[in-house]
Each structure stands twice: as structure tokens, then as C-alpha cells.
């Protein structure tokens, strides 16, 4: 199966600042991918490279096997909703659907669009400028979904929504994924949203990918070890230490390992996705790193 997203040594520099560095990734199709990281980590930069709004400074990126925005066919296969869920304030909801139909002739699913609008309780005659932030986000998602893309790229789709609306939006998105043959890449700095909607995660910190993979697999190959104070170097070579914490008498490590930890000296606990993401954000997971801004963990 073709990877939806393949990046090799991908980097983007704005003047002297690197927004994305040495990004090598291969994301399989048919997944809902959560791109998670703190503010300024490089999430929007990676998504903009994926949809062809930016060109790489180094390396290469392929999306659905082709060059992002390389030709009309490629543009039709990818839907994109930018961070500020852009809509036209003076256009009505119905105008937006007409525009979607005109811009995406051939793939546009008017019935799907109208069904969503009606289910969401949006008045077709209402101007987008008079919609709430959440309703505008839903309208933008409707346009993205009704285009019937193979890949939908969403930059912080739920940032402006209240907790109930974010839950409904993500539920809606998952239904769209189940109904259509669709892959989704969405960015968020809220781990619980990713936990709720995604089955694949990419953790981006300080312009670098720290870890990427199937969430279930990552959670079965990472554990927390708690026990008497030890040096990380004393752990077996097949237990890769991601993060470490010590008190005078105790050590707590988050390790990546393919095998069960049988040493009775350790209490072994499984991790939540939030534990895992925070561990990869820890400075020891990123040698030479400055402290990272906090991630939100909304429930
Ligand atoms: N047009 C630009 N010119 C200069 N620097 C930029 C530009 N766009 C982004 N940057 C810088 O690149 C880095 C990554 O930005 P990016 O928007 O990709 O991060 P992000 O993870 O999406 O952040 P957020 O969660 O706040 O949206 C930041 O340091 C940012 O200041």
C-alpha cells in the first residue's frame, strides 16, 4: 500500500531559523495520524510542505506517491483545512457549497455536503461571518470532506472549539473516515484529542520528529520502570531509555523495549499516550535541548 506521506531528510528554513529539520517519516495509508507537539514545534510547517504550500529547503516529501500540489490530479486527491479554518465572511453556507462544487468538479459530493450541513444544524442562508468559530470549523471540514479526497490534512482543526464541540467534531471526523476511503493527518497540541481520534502519532518537538508510529504498538513497546536508584547506563542494551527521573533513593525510567522486563528489581507499568508524548519531549530525549513549552492535556 502506498504511503500517504513519505519524507526523507526533509527540512525547512525561514531565513536563519530552521522550522523543520531532518524529518524522515513514512506514514501508511488508511490511518488517522495525529501530529502532536508544542507551539512552534514545526507542525504547520510540515503540513504546509505536505500540501505544497511550502517548498523544502532540504530533502524531499511525497504525498500519496506524488509531489505535493504537483499537478491538478494531485491537488484533487488532497484536502486541506488550514489552522484558522478559512471561510469567506460574506458568503453564505450554501455559497460555500457552491464554491466547493465549482472548485472540485468531478469529485465533489453535494449530497454528502448537504447532509452534513443539515445534521450540524447550519442554516444554508447564514453568512459565514455570522457563524460561531466552531460552526465555521465544521463548515470548513464539510468542504474538505465533500471534496472526497484520499488524504485530508487538518491543521489544529479543533483549536477554536469548546470541549463538547471538539468531541463532536472528532467523532464526526472518525465517521467520515469510516464511511470513505480516507487517510487523515491532523495536528494538535492537545494529546487527549489525538488519543480520541488517531491511531498513529508523530511527535514533533523543536523542529524534529522525536517518535512516530502506530499508537497501540508504541504503547506496547514502552513501559515505565520504577525501582531503586540506578544509572541509566546500567540498564540492558535492549532497553532504550527515553526519559529518566531520579530522587535520592529511587529511579523512574521510561524505556522502549521489544521484550518483557523480567528483572524483579523494577515495578513495570504501562503508559498512556500522554506519558509517552511527555517522555519524548523531555530534554534527555533530545540531547542539547532547551526546556519545552508545556503541552495541553485537556480532558
Ligand atoms: N513564515 C515564517 N517566517 C519565519 N519563521 C516562521 C514562519 N512560519 C513559522 N516560522 C517559525 O517556524 C517555527 C515552526 O513554526 P510552525 O508554525 O510550523 O509551528 P507549529 O508547531 O505549527 O506551532 P503552533 O502549534 O503554534 O501552530 C516557529 O519557530 C515559527 O516561529
TrEMBL record:
Q: Does the keyword Nucleotide-binding apply?
A: yes
**Keyword Transcription regulation attributed:** no
Query: What SMART domains does the annotation carry?
Result: AAA
- So which domain of life are we looking at? Bacteria
User: Where's the ABC transporter domain?
Assistant: 5-231
Which UniProt keywords are listed? ATP-binding, Nucleotide-binding, Transport
Q: Which Gene3D superfamilies match?
A: P-loop containing nucleotide triphosphate hydrolases (3.40.50.300)
Tell me the GO molecular function terms: ATP binding; ATP hydrolysis activity
Q: Which Pfam families match?
A: ABC_tran
Name listed for the protein in its UniProt record: ABC-2 type transport system ATP-binding protein
The protein's organism comes out as: Motilibacter peucedani
Q: What is the lineage of its organism?
A: Bacteria, Bacillati, Actinomycetota, Actinomycetes, Motilibacterales
